[in-house]
Amino acid sequence: MITYGKILLTAHLKSSRKKTKDIVKQFYGKEEDYAYWEGCSTGGRQGYKMAQEHPEYYDGYLNGAPAMNWTRFITSELYPQIVMQQDLGGPIDEAKLEFVSGAAVSACDLVDGQHLGFVLDTESCAYNPMKDEAVLCSGEAGDGITGTSTNASCVTALEATAINKIWYGQTVDGTAPVPTVENVGNAYLSAPNKQLWWGLNRGTNLLRLAGSSEPFGYSTDIAALQLQDPTIAQPTFINPTGNGEDGWKTLSYADLAYAYTEGLFLQGWFGNINTDNPDLTGVKEKGAKIISYHGLADQLITSDGSINYFNRVADEMGGAEAVHEFNKLYLIPGFGHCRGIGSVNGNDSPALNENNVPIPKTDQFFNLVMDWVENGVAPPDDVILSSADDSVTMPVCSYPKKAVYSGTGSITDESSYTCE
């Protein structure tokens, strides 16, 4: 896509950039004034790859839900299926996953005693189904309680424990701490708990990764490549040395942990696909600007990967305030993977739709990148998002700040919140 005097590239790499620049020069008779990158998911990962390795190419980047740490999080996307195979012998019914996730939303979406409908601060949500008698089936022994639910989607204690493991994320041996002791949402992996990567935030729709039909395809493919065994993949994996045979079903926790480690060892063979180098000195020196964003209800790529990367960049480059001079991160409650709503409906909360979940408008963040690059106007700490009909407005804050309710006013009005 070409705009007058500027270039906007969406998820294309070096060769496409040169061709686009040539077209601009031939059409306008001069080189572009500014060059921009915009991409989400793989496009977000590629944007950071360009910023890390070719910072001279672009003046501004909009990197959404970046798929950095590729082998880490893709391997971990298979973890929910391994948990269910190892602990339960098979998948948890999808209705149960939605029922427990809905209970998590309603436990964590309260603002001023009212249900917002989506979780505003996922880092503080430590909902534990083992302590919720309303989701544990009648007679099931939980953590200090006994289940009372007769709902067809109630869960057993084993299923509740498995869901807690899925939320916590991949560990070396399939263990997970009690949520109130250590929840997801930490900026750094927990070595004492043998954590390899984070799970999806509570309240996020789990069906893409833990649904009963099949694993997310890339996760079995990457496991097959890392373990050099094509049979581990699903049958759609076709390889000259053999095809996929659903061998992932036999993987143990230790096997998947080994695959994770091999993914890091094989980075050179994988083209250094993880693109997680925290040194953005080139971007800073060029004066380029980056905005990244990530949905807190992303169904595929956990937002904790973006949080971790920002903190690693801050550690490398003088702290968060120094990084804010050229790179800002916004975490968006209720937002899914690159578009739409990623949260499930809360069991006791308003049903979610486009009119009650504020998400970015088309080009809203991109316009902020342009203003930052061309006019020197840094993005605000509070970017105001609105629902489709503008009935709900909410600030999303420049990380590490969060939207905090001021104590008065409507919980669906941005004026009732401050970024702190």
Q: If you had to describe this structure to a student in words, what would you say it looks like?
A:
It is a single chain. This protein has helices at 14-28, 42-53, 70-77, 79-88, 94-108, 157-168, 207-210, 217-227, 253-265, 281-286, 304-316, 320-323, 364-375, and strands at residues 2-3, 6-10, 34-40, 60-64, 110-111, 114-115, 289-295, 327-332, 382-386, 393-397, 403-405, 417-419. The protein has 2 domains: 2-68 and 273-419, Rossmann fold (3-Layer(aba) Sandwich); 71-214 and 255-261, no CATH class. 49% of the residues are buried. The two termini are 37 Å apart. It is built from 13 helices and 12 strands. Mean pLDDT is 94; it is low at 1-7. The longest helix is centred in the first third of the chain and has 15 residues, at 14-28. A hairpin with a 2-residue loop joins strand 5 (110-111) and strand 6. A 6-stranded mixed beta sheet has the order 1-2-3-4-7-8, with helices on both faces. With 420 residues, the chain is of the alpha/beta class.
Number of continuous helical runs: 13
| Rg, nearest Å | 22 Å
Q: How does the helix and strand content classify structurally?
A: alpha/beta
Strand order of the largest sheet: 1-2-3-4-7-8
Number of strands: 12
| Main beta-sheet strand count, sense and barrel state | 6 strands, mixed
Q: What would CATH call the class of the largest domain?
A: Alpha Beta
> How many domains make up the 3D coordinates?
2
Going by CATH, the architecture of the largest domain would be 3-Layer(aba) Sandwich
Beta-strand portion reads 5-15%
**Whole-Å distance between the termini?**
37 Å
Low-confidence runs of at least 5 consecutive residues: 1-7
